[in-house]
Predict the structure.
Amino acid sequence: MTALTELPQSMTRPRLQPRPRDAAVYARAQAQGLSELQARLLASRLPGYAGELMPLVAPSLRYLAHPQKLAEGRRAAERIAEAVVDDESIGILTDYDVDGITSHVVIRRTLVELFGVPESKLHSLIGHRIHDGYGISLPLVERTLALTPRPTLVITADCGSSDEPRIARLKAAGSDVVVSDHHALPEEGPPASAYACVNPTRQDCDYPDATIAGCMVAWLVMSLARGVLIEWGALPAATPKLSPWLSYVALGTVADCVSLGASPANRAVVSQGLALINRMDAPCFRAMAERLGPDSVPFNAETLAFQMGPRINARSRLDDPYEALNFMLAESDAAAGQHLSVLEDDNQSRKAIEAEMATEARALAVAELTADAPAVVVFVADGHPGVQGIVASRLVQAYGRPALVLTRAAAPNMLTGSGRSIDGLHLRDALQRAHELAPEALPRFGGHSGAAGIGVPEAQLAAFKAAFLQAVGEQLGDTLLYPRLWTDGELDAATLTLTTLDELEALGPYGREFDPPLFEGRFIVESLRPVGADGTHLMMELSTGALTLKAIWFRALTPGELPAFGVGATLHCAYKLNRNRYRGRESLQLMVEHAEPL
């Protein structure tokens, strides 16, 4: 912690800033019957948005574009249908994160339960984050080719767009590869050896929303395959649609941090998926609800993002990802509960590893921050590669700058890294530019605007860092960089009610590029006490005028630390409204994100 005190407070203290509002969106929202508060929230989250508001305000599946608009979607669907009809051996190859796991579930359940493919004809292929690396890695290809019977078709999801050499290897060995993905394509375009590449970011793709997650692309491709099989007479017209699988698509979409702003498609599938999840039909969702407690239901987007997603991700960060897949596919509550216990243990281990690595990463960041670099790039020599992305997120939150965290890779003399971005910087584009500046220093990279992964030769780290910082500087220009919290202004004491929270929740789901409402205000501390296993959370009662509310501030303290204020202090807080459920009763609670004594 000593190193952190060397930084000026201007670099580490978050600034509360009101969100700028689009006057035209504000006026249109009110004209369409939304409340003043709802109009305010939309106007600050949809700058420059000229499209229809109702598909965003009242999400519905009727706003989804037909999957036929996906470039090579029909070709991919026909190849999948052919494999089903001809009783081929099929490999399902997906990423190891939540988006990849949920994609895997969508494809596998569709093949087995709707298309009648025997389990014996399917192979689940998921790389190990540490030993194999991301995407269609060479070790994963070799394992695929060693299978008996060898898959004659490999369907990918959430990966594959940048894996031409490995796809060529599979093709040469007699395995067709159908890529379904959402990550940005390399400059040379879709992989030439793929039988089909379905990716909404393709320049020749007519699908109107390029921000959909990998699981949504997989869902659309399998929906097309259902249509083809019915068209061919291989399935009856009454074969159920894939709608129930939107529960998985919602989870993968939220966990992968794709846009929930000006995206009718993402808002629709998350809204519909949450409704399906809250029926609690699947053992995995029932097991999660039991783990989180009865007051956790109904789930919302934040439940998926901060409770369910991290537990699924924790497994692949530290170990074999198949435990997470087995949890999602569990057919009984008992099996789901057993798998979830393993995920829970991994998640606790992940938290401990993350905390230690984040402390080291902050100390390493001091030199770059002191030099006012436009991004933070740190190499944690003994760090765990499974938590790079989370630690990068912590650095972004702490310093308001894009961050890359690198550790040693399994391959000798190589480093692997994950990055997270800020508003105004397209991270994947910055990496593309860094590759142009120093191609030997960045032989492998991929991702999208908000997150990315990289591979860097250890001897080229300095060259890569220089190229990346130049690329970031070119994009950001003279943008002032500091940690900031965008707020939606103040609320009168009279509006601090559950009715106001109902208004806010009606605009959900919230997520990336459609942030949950965050307000600011002054409160007097009536009581406070550290809580949690290590005493790092702060439970308080805060008053404004005649109103007193319960409040919780997570991670407010470091272990053993005392608050910097006491009872009677006046705090300037940034907070969210929260519905506290206890023994069937509901009350309003403040979720404090930041507070400073005045």
About this structure: Residues 333-370 form the longest helix (38 residues). The chain has three domains: 3-58+485-597, 61-247, 372-476. Residues 18 and 107 are 43 Å apart (CA to CA). The domain at 61-247 is CATH 3.90.1640.30 (inorganic pyrophosphatase (n-terminal core)).
